[in-house]
Amino acid sequence: MNRKLLALAAISAVFGVINFASRAAQSGQQAPFQALVSPASCAQPQWPAEARRYEIEGATTIRFEIGSDGRVLHPSVTQGSGWQILDQAALQGIASCVFQPDLPAASKQTVFPLQYVWKLSGTPAARPVLLADSCPPSDRFATFRAADQRPSNADGILLRFLVNADGAPTRVVAEPNGQPPALVAQAVGYLQSCRFGYAAGQAGERTDTGFGRVLLK
């Protein structure tokens, strides 16, 4: 829980990025990111406290345009991190930026891609693992697959959770991604019936956080 937090941004556009490598998405003269953004107007997005507590990571790719007044227009997520809370933080981060007014890109309605990489520093944490045969038989669900961060779909439901002293999942948060609420609620209930513990000799600092997908039959 003491690992440092890193929120890294990498832009692919007609300009570079502070401290990070970038490549041009289209032809045109490149200019430093600092030269296009108004002073102190484009800070890195804040890592949400809830995301820190659950120690979730991922990469959010977004796109946006720049208005004639230098403000960001039409920001949207093109590829999510798997976690809505991180994707929303990325959108809020870029929406707060103010670029120089009357940029040529504004009149051309240039679309800029941008990726935020949310990553914790240090060695990976030792997360609780599913105890064998601890999940009760189910007609609907097959098992829980840890560290599977694919979005929820007809094959499984993505969940993040904490594990209490008894090895039971608590404070379970689902990422429905359009799946039926009743199915999502059933997946949460199934996970809460499973039990978790630490593997012998498991490397890394122990944490009480976990995530993965409840798989459907």
UniProtKB/TrEMBL annotation:
Subcellular localization(s) per the UniProt record: Cell inner membrane
Pfam families hit by this protein: TonB_C (PF03544)
Signal peptide region: 1-24
Domain of life, per lineage: Bacteria
Membrane topology: Single-pass membrane protein
InterPro entries: TonB-dependent_transducer, TonB/TolA_C, TonB_C
Keyword terms of this UniProt record: Cell inner membrane, Cell membrane, Membrane, Protein transport, Signal, Transmembrane, Transmembrane helix, Transport
SUPFAM superfamilies: TolA/TonB C-terminal domain (SSF74653)
Gene3D superfamilies xrefs: 3.30.1150.10
Similarity-based family: Belongs to the TonB family.
PANTHER family named among the record's database cross-references: PROTEIN TONB (PTHR33446:SF2), PROTEIN TONB-RELATED (PTHR33446)
Protein name (record): Energy transducer TonB
Biological source species: Duganella dendranthematis
Lineage: Bacteria, Pseudomonadati, Pseudomonadota, Betaproteobacteria, Burkholderiales
